[in-house]
Amino acid sequence: EVQLQASGGGLVQPGGSLRLSCAASGFAFGDYAIGWFRQAPGKEREVVSCISARADNTFQSADVRGRFTISRDNDKNTVYLQMNSLKPKDTAVYYCAARAARSSRYYYTQSTEYDVWGRGTQVTVSS
To answer: pLDDT band for position 40 (50/70/90)?
Structure first.
């Protein structure tokens, strides 16, 4: 069964850190690009960060650049999102998604380009 499982969310104070994990199973993880997306209440889903299949290239949205770092361990079939200097506006449900990569160097920033999605993990930044 093709599956993605996001974890690591929680409640954190402004300025704090969290590390999200996305564990994959049921497909050739090393051939897939991965993206992290988030959706806040009343807002559309938006891209946060993406990584190519072999981690050659990464993308961070302007909102999180310099604060969030994406990485992956293909031996563990896991992608990570290290989130530092968290702000209340980062509060959202965070989702990871996967798609077969046309090239090991490509990442994809549109949610419509992904065909495997995990259940989200809630991140709440509040004092």
So the answer is: very high
Q: Has residue 60 got a pLDDT over 90?
A: yes
C-alpha closest to that of 91 among 120, 67, 124, 119: 124
Q: Which amino acid is at 90?
A: D
Distance CA 91, CA 94 (A): 9
Question: Other CB atoms closer than 10 Å to residue 113's CB: what's the count?
Answer: 14
**Measured distance CA(4)–CA(96) in Å, rounded:** 7
List Cβ neighbours of 16 (8 Å cut-off, separation of 6 or more). Answer: 86, 125
Kindly state the percentage of the chain with pLDDT values over 90: 97
**Structure tokens, 120:** 């989200």
**Tens-digit pLDDT profile for residues 8-27:** 999 999 999 999 999 999 99
Cα 46 to Cα 54: distance, rounded to the nearest angstrom: 23
Q: Which residues contact 29 (CB under 8 A, 6 or more apart)?
A: 74, 77, 98
pLDDT at 89: 97
